[in-house]
């Protein structure tokens, strides 16, 4: 499975045909946004604290075919959900969620927690973000959106991929010139302000800045980023790295982060740890982040932290160190060392960040003992979705079979709910989001 296989010509032809029929226009007029899913080998749970993270995209993701609507109307259909969405780009969009001090998320117009149920929220969120930065929107879109077939995208940042897709389509239709770095901020507005999820900028940065075969590294405090090549040999026939594949093992657990208070609570605990450490050193910043804490200050005062806060801070500082070492290993093509650091990151996510549901932890434990695996960890926050692993290319199929068999022993009910052909997927590195 090569990175060049997505999107396939068949997929593009199918989407263009659907949109042309929706709009009554020729297929040649249909543009398609390609917005890939992402993985984060190292840098787990530290982007919201201004840490340094690594990421790359895979050759799976979101496709959004569209045509400018010639008026302000947005008309959307989905390959995964029923019904049709209609609204206008001059409708004023308001945040759907508010976040309480304890990290719980509530719908802004009710007093009860709200599940994600309306698939149009990311399209409306994209309009919200563009409006928020005073962009002039005069053109809507007629569009059809779908994700890679047979794939449970949870844990791969499908939400950011969808948000980016709608941003690129609306910007293209309205002839707005927006840089990838600006779109990172726009998608942050969708996630943080419109949906109330207090995550960082890792996901959208990976989707918008990645380059096939490279590891994208970003300092989330300064927003500086770079692409790191590797000395792993490439296959001249495919132009992709030959030494590794990316393995995705799915748990069958599905729950939106906006309905799980655990994520935002851990972000708040990181901030509480930063506040304590800064105050202990005489620094009284009003909006503290752990990136503002010098490592020496942490070492001096960490023993005084409450147990939960101590664990969150320990994860932050050790994960930052793992990213630095991992970038060096990647550049040298040292997959064994790179993999060891990924697995150590996964263990810290469980022990120090204390995220991960039982099925995800079981998947992680299976992966780290799987023949051919270099390293593994949760993909995403660890409450749902999947685990990622870097695997020896020559043993990828063997490894996938082993993981599938072992997980079905432990979680037969969850495993039975997954597509038999995609319980464990073998993927390639991908490229950045783009309009074709």
Please name the defining characteristics of this protein:
436 residues; eight-stranded mixed beta sheet; Alpha-Beta Plaits; 2 domains; 21% strand; single chain; alpha+beta; Ribosomal Protein S5, domain 2; globular; four-stranded antiparallel beta sheet
Summarize the topology.
Blueprint: H1 9-23, E1 31-39, E2 52-68, E3 73-78, E4 84-88, E5 97-99, E6 105-107, H2 121-132, E7 141-147, H3 158-173, H4 180-194, H5 202-209, E8 215-219, E9 225-228, E10 234-235, E11 240-241, E12 244-250, H6 261-280, H7 295-301, H8 307-332, H9 335-351, H10 358-368, E13 373-379, E14 386-392, H11 396-410, H12 412-416, E15 424-427, E16 434-435
Helix proportion:
25-40%
Number of separate domains: 2
For the biggest sheet, the summary is: 8 strands, mixed
The count of strands amounts to 16
Global shape? globular
Cα separation of the termini: 22 Å
**Radius of gyration (Å):** 21 Å
Residue ranges: pLDDT <50 for 5 or more in a row? 99-107, 109-117
Tell me the name of the CATH class of the largest domain.
Alpha Beta
Instruction: Return the average pLDDT rounded to an integer.
Output: 87
Structural class call reads alpha+beta
Helix tally equals: 12
Helix and strand element order: HEEEEEEHEHHHEEEEEHHHHHEEHHEE
GO biological process, one term: galactose metabolic process
GO molecular function: ATP binding; galacturonokinase activity; metal ion binding
Protein name: Galacturonokinase
Domain GHMP kinase C-terminal: 330-407
């Amino acid at each position: 499975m090569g990175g060049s296989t997505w999107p396939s010509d068949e997929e593009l032809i199918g989407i263009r045909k659907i949109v042309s029929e929706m709009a009554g226009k020729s297929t040649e007029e249909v543009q398609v946004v390609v917005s890939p899913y992402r993985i984060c080998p190292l840098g787990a749970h530290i982007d919201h604290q201004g840490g340094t993270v690594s990421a790359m995209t895979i050759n799976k993701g979101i496709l959004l075919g569209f045509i400018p609507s010639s008026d302000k109307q947005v008309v959307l259909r989905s390959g995964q959900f029923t019904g049709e969405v209609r609204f206008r780009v001059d409708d004023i969009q308001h945040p759907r969620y508010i976040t309480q001090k304890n990290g719980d998320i509530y719908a802004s117009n009710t007093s009860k927690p709200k599940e994600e149920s309306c698939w149009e929220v990311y399209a409306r969120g994209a309009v919200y973000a563009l409006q928020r930065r005073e962009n002039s929107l005069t053109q809507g879109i007629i569009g059809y959106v779908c994700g890679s077939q047979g794939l449970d995208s949870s844990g791969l940042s499908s939400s950011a991929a969808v948000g980016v897709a709608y941003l690129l389509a609306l910007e293209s239709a309205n002839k707005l010139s927006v840089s990838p770095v600006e779109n990172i901020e726009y998608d942050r507005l969708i996630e943080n302000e419109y949906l109330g999820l207090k995550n960082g900028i890792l996901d959208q940065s990976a989707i918008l800045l990645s380059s096939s075969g490279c590891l994208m590294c970003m300092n989330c405090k300064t927003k500086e980023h770079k692409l790191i090549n590797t000395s792993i040999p490439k296959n001249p026939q495919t132009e992709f790295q030959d030494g590794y594949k990316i393995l995705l093992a799915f748990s069958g657990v599905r729950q939106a982060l906006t309905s799980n208070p655990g994520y935002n609570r851990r972000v708040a605990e990181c901030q509480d740890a930063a506040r304590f450490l800064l105050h202990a050193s005489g620094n009284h910043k009003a909006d503290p982040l752990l990136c503002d804490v010098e490592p020496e200050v942490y070492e001096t005062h960490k023993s005084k932290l409450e147990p939960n806060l101590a664990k969150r801070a320990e994860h932050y500082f050790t994960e930052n160190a793992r990213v630095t070492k991992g970038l060096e290993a990647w550049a040298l093509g040292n997959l064994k060392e790179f993999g060891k650091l990924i697995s150590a990151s996964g263990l810290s996510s469980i022990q120090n960040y204390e995220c991960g549901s039982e099925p995800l932890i079981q998947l992680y434990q299976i992966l780290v003992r799987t023949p051919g695996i270099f390293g593994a960890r949760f993909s995403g926050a660890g409450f749902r979705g999947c685990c990622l692993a870097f695997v020896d290319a020559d043993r990828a199929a063997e490894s996938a079979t082993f993981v599938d068999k072992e997980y079905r022993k432990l979680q037969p009910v969850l495993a039975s709910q997954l597509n038999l052909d995609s319980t464990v997927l073998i993927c390639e590195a991908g490229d950045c989001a783009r309009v074709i």
